[in-house]
Amino acid sequence: MNLRDMKIVVTGAAQGMGAHFARRLAEAGAQVAAGDVNEAGLKELPAGVHTRKLNVADEADCGAFIAWAHQTLGGVNGLINNAGILRDGLLVKKDKTTGAIQKLSAEQWNAVLAVNLTGATFMVRELVAKMAETNQRPGVIVNMSSLARYGNRGQSNYVAAKAALAANTVTWAREFAGFGVRVGAIAPGMIETPMTQGMNQKARDALVAAVPVGRVGTPEDIWQAVKFVIECDYFNGRCIDVDGGLAM
Ligand SMILES: NC(=O)c1ccc[n+]([C@@H]2O[C@H](COP(=O)([O-])OP(=O)(O)OC[C@H]3O[C@@H](n4cnc5c(N)ncnc54)[C@H](O)[C@@H]3O)[C@@H](O)[C@H]2O)c1
Question: What's this model's pTM, rounded to 2 decimal places?
């Protein structure tokens, strides 16, 4: 699809990659509906980007946001399913000094699944339902998975969500073919955003040292993949790892 023809929803658009995607899309002539729980961050987006508060963990809000985007943009034909959170922790941990056993809390597990998997799924459901209801086609969805989809220590919750999102990219590409909607996913490695800026320096240095291209990725590196998924009408049902070679 041509970027100029996109009427596209971007979730988690208040900062980091989502904000970058919303800016790049608007610059390219797309009509953009940007949502986030962080309303203050949304205000920093350029004037041409339409914004509204969105909590993807709230099922009703997913539907309300898509209805608003449809009305505001005069239709919807795309989604960058980008909102995400971390609540890292080992599933089971034994304290070295006291020997006490700590478990990953249900709150940590549920919070990540609610945003990164259930929320992302309901955004897909609502977008495609609206497109089907209004006979709008073609369309494209870009799911933000992660390199964590292959498994990562201390991230059971995040891994479960991101692996499921990559797998359901195949499910949805098959289910939505009849609606003219393609579905792709991108699995970034370590990207410089507020999400990774909080990492401790030692862990960060070790990760960077393991990246064959020798640096952290930028939102622009990931935008190039997003752009490809939108523009290449023969791309469907696959997840692209953009990780500087980290997962080889
Ligand atoms: N930064 C990385 O290294 C990296 C790597 C792989 C995958 N990812 C994924 O890419 C996506 C973007 O990551 P980022 O690094 O820009 O993160 P970020 O934390 O900088 O931005 C995420 C945005 O999502 C928003 N958000 C959180 N919960 C929400 C909710 N319930 N409803 C709506 N919005 C919500 C936040 O307010 C924030 O603006 C995420 O899905 C993340 O898991 C990031």
Answer: 0.98
